[in-house]
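Let's practice the habit of predicting before peeking. Look at the sequence and jot down your guess about where helices and strands might fall. Then scroll down.
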Amino acid sequence: MQEKVNFEERDIFINPLNADEISAVFGDENVSKIFSSRSPSLKKLGLISDSLNDTEKIKLMSEEPRLIKRPIIVFDGVIFAGINENSLREELNKKNLFS
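Done guessing? Here is the structure:
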């Protein structure tokens, strides 16, 4: 996006989120919203997303960042995960967060 927006970028492969950070950032959000259940990494672990509870998903995401949908954007307290630019723009416009 070309709009002038201040942001903080974090490469979760270089500087992974720990379980506490994941919980703090996403709070009461449904963990499934950010958990990449179709990730090849999950298949390699031999796990099925539906059989995992939120605590297990958070632990797995802290150990394997590929299990986190990307990009993650937190804007005015609204979390967007695994969304492309056009979809993000549409969502921000719907919520009157960005014009």
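How did you do? The two ends are 12 Å apart (CA to CA).
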